[in-house]
UniProtKB/TrEMBL annotation:
Keyword hit for Zinc: yes
GO biological process terms, semicolon-separated: protein import into mitochondrial intermembrane space
Species name: Calocera viscosa (strain TUFC12733)
Example GO molecular function: zinc ion binding
Lineage: superkingdom: Eukaryota
Name by which UniProt lists this protein: CHY-type domain-containing protein
Positions with biased composition (Polar residues): 110-121
Keyword Metal-binding: yes
Lineage, top ranks: Eukaryota, Fungi, Dikarya, Basidiomycota, Agaricomycotina
Length: 121
């Protein structure tokens, strides 16, 4: 997982060290050398897990898709943004953070104790 770009669709094989990275910043963090530039790049699609080559000197709009699964891998990058948030569990799993414990319902009142005879007609 790349911490620099959140919506990475392919991994890139660095031509200098032959290792896979999600972005150039990940390469700069984990290696002691600069990323070598080349015209032919090797990608690994994260959707179908298949590798493919692209010649960057003849790159066209149709080359923005994986040749195996048609995954559109050229997207505007979504970078993480700093935000002040309350850390907690997912609200769909554990909704304790959403409940307001100050307002409690009347425990003696229930749908079974209400008189609904006037509504029956």
């Amino acid at each position: 997982m790349c911490k620099h770009i959140l919506n990475v669709q392919v991994a890139i094989r660095a031509p200098c060290c032959k290792q896979w990275f999600d972005c150039a910043e990940c390469h700069a963090e984990r290696s002691d050398h600069r990323l070598r530039r080349t015209n032919e790049m090797i990608f690994l699609c994260k959707k179908c897990k298949k590798a493919f080559r692209k010649d960057m000197s003849e790159y066209d709009e149709q080359d923005e898709y994986c040749p195996h699964c048609d995954n559109h891998y050229v997207l505007p990058a979504v970078e993480p943004k700093a935000a002040l948030m309350v850390e907690g569990e997912d609200a769909r799993v554990d909704s304790k953070m959403l409940k307001d414990e100050r307002v409690k319902g009347d425990a003696s009142r229930s749908i079974f104790t209400q008189d609904g005879s006037s509504r029956l007609g």
